[in-house]
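ESCALATION

Customer reports they have been waiting on this structure for their group meeting. Please prioritize. Original submission:
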Amino acid sequence: MIISGLARGIDTASHRGAVAAKGKTVAVLGTGVDIMYPKENTRLTDQIVALGGALVTEFPVGTPPTPQNFPIRNRIISGISAGVLVVEAAEYSGTRITSRLALEQNRDVYAVPGNVTNKGSWGPNTLIKQGAKLVATWEDVWEELPTDVQVVLGATQQNESAEPETASLFPDEARSPHENKILKLLKADESTHIDQLVELLEEELSASEIFAALFELELNGKVRQLPGKNFVKSF
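Update from on-call: job pushed to the front of the queue and completed.
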């Protein structure tokens, strides 16, 4: 199960990845349950609930998305998780707070290394230096999970695989403009480095937007990451 905060970027990509895999995901809100923020994720929240996931908040109905709410809710994200995976985090960010809370709550912390020239890589790279588990593939997280958690997840996966497959919730035409821009630049027979993508798209997308789109494309099986932050189309 994926637990995240429904924010733009990596949070949204993680929720969508879980939904695309027909899995369960929990969105911890920084608002009242009746106020969706960001608004563009309203359809996503409907899909989360329809697949057996949940929207969780400690704030009363009608609470608006004020900035101080989001660091407060981060302790819930880390507290109900078995571990916290940090993909991007600037030096002063809410994700940095979440990772600190996870350590205080005796949760495992994992991190995806990034280019040292990218401000968003400061958090995961620093966490790795401090002893966080370096993550390159999902197996790196799986092998660190407690045995009892692996048993439960393994049984769930077997039960779900026995069910007939249904149509994808995210057909090709539903891809975001960011994802389509990246797919046009990638080739199936030749890898493209993340730095090259950032350079080619610097006037259209930020580095964090590119990383988030790549993350979602990889989760949906459209893109494959090779060693050294190189990417190829997988179809």
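Sent to customer with the following note: The chain has three domains: 1-81, 82-160, 176-233.
Escalation resolved.
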